[in-house]
Amino acid sequence: MVHQNLGSMASEAIEEHLAIAEYCISTVKPGSDGVYGFTAVLLLFSVVDALSNYLNCPKNSFGALKVWDSKLTPTQVKSLKDWFRNPSAHQAMIMPGTKLTLEEGDPFEFAAGEPSHIRVRPFFRLVSDGWKQFDRTKLTATFHPEEYPQTPINFTGASTAVPMAPSGCYIPTPPRKGAKK
User: Fold this and answer.
1) Chain center to CA of 32
2) Residue 58: is it exposed, middle or buried by C-beta count within 10 angstroms (0-12/13-18/19+)?
3) Is 58 helix (H, G, I), strand (E, B) or coil?
């Protein structure tokens, strides 16, 4: 789908993240009795980070978690990011000595103030419910013109004979001077 605005593209991406996260927690891995928990958690934290930004929380604060689960302290939210999201994104693991499970209960468990356990299905529901209640008019993604591609794709008059890429977006403002057309 070619989006007319960045908010529409962000909405599609969040919907995709949640759909794949749901698949991850409901599909048993071949040759295992486990599910795709690492991938689900990474996708869910990506949605949390994005929605936190749209809620005008400080950048990379995961502040949406505090909106959806008022029992969490800022220190706990930061620890969740540092122990589960960042290692998942940058090292393909969670912090040693912690765990992910599918059991029911609170999404997060802390031992001596440190995050020790994410219950992935309840975490999915927390994020999914947060998205359902989210005011879509707050999806106001912005980029500075100097961040745009030097040679953006021109979607004008694109043929429907050849399938389009799965997603794209028009540049919302005129490209900067010197950009090739």
Assistant:
1) 26
2) exposed
3) coil
CA torsion sign for 86, 129, 140, 165 is positive
Residue whose tokens read 């100097």:
146
Could you tell me which residues are beta bridge partners of residue 118? 100, 108
Secondary structure (DSSP) of 20-39: HHHHHHHSPPTTSS---HHH
> Can you tell me the distance from the alpha carbon of 122 to that of 107, in angstroms, rounded to the nearest whole number?
5
What are the structure tokens assigned to 47, written together?
């949605």
pTM of the model: 0.81
Amino acid identity at 73 = T
pLDDT tens, 4-45? Answer: 777 888 899 999 999 999 999 999 999 888 899 999 999 999
